[in-house]
Amino acid sequence: MFFLLIPVVLYMLIKKYFFSKSPKKLLKKHVVVTGGSSGIGKSVGILAASRGANVTIIARDEDKLKLAERDIKKACIDENQQVKIFSLDVTDNVAVTRVFDQIEDSGGPIYMLINCAGKSICRTLEDMSVDDITFMLNLNVLGTVFPTRWVLPKFKARKEGIIVITASQASLIGIYGMSVYSASKFALRGFAEAIDMEARFHNVSVTLSLPPDTDTPGLHAENIGKPEETLLISGCAGLFQPDVVAERLLDDALDKKFFSHIGFESFVSTTLGAGMSPCSSIAEILLQLFCMGPLRLIGLGYLAHFHRIIRRGVEKSEKQK
Q1: Strand-by-strand arrangement of the 83-87 sheet
Q2: Per the structure, how many domains does the chain have?
Q3: Which family does it belong to (predicted)?
Q4: pLDDT tens digits, 77-134
Q5: Which residues pair with 112 in a beta bridge?
Q6: CB 122 within 8 A of CB 226
Q7: I need a surface site. Which of 105, 117, 121, 245 has the fewest CB within 10 A?
C-alpha cells in the first residue's frame, strides 16, 4: 500500500516548489467583497487592505458593516486608502445594479470581485422548510450570479479583472444533511466553469474557492441543529481559521488559479473532482495525472468512513423509536 503515499509526497513537493509564488500587487486596486461584514469575507477585506488595496465591503447588516469597516481601516498601510461599506441584498438584481453603479462612481473601477455572501442551513431534506430551501438557494446562487453579472462586462471591456466565487468542499461531494446546500454549491462550480470560458480570452480570471469548515460566525450558527452525522463527517477535514483561508483565496486569485483549496482532504476532493475543469499550470496537470488513481482509493476510504457514520446514526435512531 506504499503507493498510496505517492499523492501525499507529490502534493507536498509540488506545493512547495511550484505552487508557492509571491503574491501580486494589490496596491491602489479596488477590491469589492460581498458578505464582507464577517467570516472569510471580512478576513479577505482586512488582508486586501494590508496589501494597499481600496476595499469596499457589502452585506445587509449595517451595524456589522461598521464594525468590519473599523477593523479593515486598521489594516490599511496608507492614509489615502479608501474603505467603503454598502448595505445591500445581493439577491435583488435591481438593487445590485444601483449599488454597484454607486460603488464604482465613488471608489473607482473595480479590479477584483470576491463573492463571499452565502448561508448554510444543515438539515436532512425532509426536515428543511420550503422557506429555508428558497432562501439558501437564492442567496448562495443568485447572490453570486447578480454581482458577477454586473462586473463581467466591465472587466471584459477593460481587459482586466479577477472574479472569485466562494463555494465549498460541498461543491465537490454531496454530504449527509447538506442536500440543498450542496446543490447550491454544485451550481456555483458549474457557474464558475462557464464564466471562466466567457472571461479568459478577455484577460479576466475566475477563481473558485473551495474552503472546508472555517471558524466563522456562520459556521457557529450552522452547527445549531446540524445533524450529528453531518458534524462528524464535516469534521474529518479539520477546522481552519478565516485569515488562513482568506490568504490562500487571495493569493490563488492573484495567481489566476481556477481552484483554490486548503488542506490535504480538500486537495483530495478537488483533485478527484477536477474532471473537465480548467487547469492553471503544468504542475497541476502533472499532480492530477500521477495522483488520480491512488486518490480514488483514498476517496473511497473516506466515503466508506462517512457511510459507517451514517449507518451508526440510523441504527441509533431505530433503537430510540
Answers
A1: 83-87, 54-59, 30-34, 112-115, 161-166, 204-209, 259-260
A2: 1
A3: Belongs to the short-chain dehydrogenases/reductases (SDR) family.
A4: 999 999 999 999 999 999 999 999 999 999 999 999 999 999 999 999 999 999 999 9
A5: 31, 162
A6: yes
A7: 105
